[in-house]
Amino acid sequence: MAHESTDAARTLTFEIFRFNPEQPEVEPHLQSFELDETPYMTLFLALNRIREEQDPSLQFDFACRSAVCGSCGMLVNGRPRLACNTLTRDLPDVIRLHPLPAFQLIGDLSVDTGVWFREMHRRVESWVHERAPFDPEAPEERMDDELAQAIYEGERCIECGCCVAGCGVANVNPRFVGAAGMNRIARFMTDPRDARSDEDWFDVVSTEDGVFGCVGLMACHDVCPKGLPLLEVYAYLRRRMLGAGLSRGGSNELLQIEAA
Ligand code: SF4
Ligand code: SF4
Ligand code: FES
Fold first, then answer.
1. Which of 60, 61, 71, 76 for a ligand 3 pocket mutation test, highest count of atoms within 8 Å of Cβ?
2. CA 87–ligand 3 middle distance (angstroms)
3. Which of 40, 119, 151, 216 is the most buried (most CB within 10 A)?
4. What is the CATH code of the structural domain delimited by 112-259?
5. Which CATH fold would you assign to the domain 11-98?
6. Beta 79-82 vs 94-98: how paired, if at all?
7. Using an 8 Å Cβ cutoff, are 158 and 67 in contact?
8. What is the enclosing helix (H) or strand (E) of 206?
9. Whole-prediction pTM
10. Where do the CATH 3.10.20.30 domains begin and end in the chain?
């Protein structure tokens, strides 16, 4: 429920997950902190105040404070969100914070998303595979505005990990490329400068670690803080892979996605 800034000031209770892997003798637990709400308070401001005023050992990550760097993802009352652009007035009196699941825990609310994303990029070879060697003397080729915009749309991902944390499949299969990976693949499939054909992509995407592993309930789409059209990305990949698969003679898996 939203609470307008004109409301009487609330005292918020933060129940925060605490665990330091370097002190395994202290069991993971929730620790409560109370804080008076101030107008336009974000979770970033609240956590900083808790660290400055109540417990300097609290671990969490922030850098840009403006939904650009992707480092402040966490579970807020069970839902993946960016803490820097989440206002406390949109949350109830009791705010429960956990680290994003599916990523390596550094401590408390801090996770290492870099390991997961680096591995995903390595596996999907997340760079343009040039059709011809780069020639610095060649005139720049023009690109249709709409196509450039479609590629730019895929580049808006800030790698916050919210879609991965909210995905049941990614939580049980660390090799699953997740919505962030599928978005990345679609970005290169769209790019005419990339030499990879649908046949090449089929070998990368058409496994249970790729589009066939996705159960399509679109939690990723719902939680993406940048509003990426992950539903459309998923449909686009299915269409392209269905075509590539059928040209190979089809398979049971393809018939199942066609029916889905
Ligand atoms: S649709 Fe569901 S299974 Fe597929 S990537 Fe999104 S959250 Fe995961
Ligand atoms: S697709 Fe959205 S939720 Fe997933 S990592 Fe990128 S910005 Fe975050
Ligand atoms: S601090 Fe950069 S996205 Fe939140």
1. 71
2. 13
3. 151
4. 1.10.1060.10
5. Ubiquitin-like (UB roll) (3.10.20)
6. unpaired
7. yes
8. none
9. 0.90
10. 11-98
